[in-house]
Amino acid sequence: MISIVVLLEALALLTAAALYVYQLATGAPVTSFWGAVFTLGLLLAFSAWLFAVSHFLFRGYRWTRAAALVAQLFVLTIGFPTMTGGLALAGLAMVVPALAGIVLLFDKRVIAFASRTGGSRAAL
Fold first, then answer.
1. Does 29 reside within a domain?
2. What is the pLDDT of residues 109-122, one digit of tens each?
3. In a domain, 78, yes or no
């Protein structure tokens, strides 16, 4: 379940990057062209990182819990100011999945799955 939450967050970031490219292509005003390119690069890199975390979390690798937690904390640091800054719906769309992800990361089943030491597949 947690890997699905992280996967959906990665898809949301990829969608945001696509919308960002569309806005840049249609002539949306930007202060700095290279700043916009850098922002687009960050969106794409963070999306790729979340896709990787989701994949390896699904497979049960140990390091993915820490990576997913860091991602959720990043989302919370953006979501709360967005929510309190007048964009309540957009803020809630960020905060609710992040909080659900944090709760799921500390679920006993997720901890046990991502902490396996034996079996047919090795856990990192």
1. yes
2. 888 888 865 455 65
3. yes
